[in-house]
Design a protein that fits this description.
Helices cover 24% and strands 19% of the residues. The protein is α+β, with helices and mostly antiparallel strands and 111 residues long. 15% of the residues are buried.
Length: 111
């Protein structure tokens, strides 16, 4: 990822671009996704950013550990994590769009 891309995604997700070179997880309230009522994970190297509605941040910081970066892209882990916040969830892999028939909850890839 070029420096320009690091800058764009850092601003979009609310982190300093230099954080991409540090292992770990950043949990931020939506900046570029303000108004979106879902969770969005973005990973570069060993750093993962979780962007979520402001009301979810405290719970996510409590539930997500520093070693969960790779697990955040796993369907079953996301379903378990989101199940804490939502009555019913259907997790999606980065290449699929899925809609839960009961709740209408739609999870999709960022592209």
């Amino acid at each position: 990822m070029a420096t320009r891309d690091d800058q764009f995604w850092g601003e979009f997700l609310g982190i300093e671009p230099s954080r991409w070179d540090l292992p770990g997880i950043s949990i931020r309230a939506h900046v570029g996704l303000q108004g979106y009522r879902g969770l969005w994970c973005f990973r570069r190297r060993d750093h993962t950013v979780i962007s979520a509605p402001a009301g979810w941040i405290s719970l996510l910081r409590h539930r997500v550990g520093e070693n969960d970066g790779k697990r955040l892209l796993d369907e079953s882990f996301l379903a378990e994590l989101l199940g804490v916040m939502l009555p019913a969830t259907r997790a999606s892999s980065p290449t699929r769009i899925s809609t839960d028939a009961d709740t209408g909850l739609r999870l999709r890839a960022p592209w």
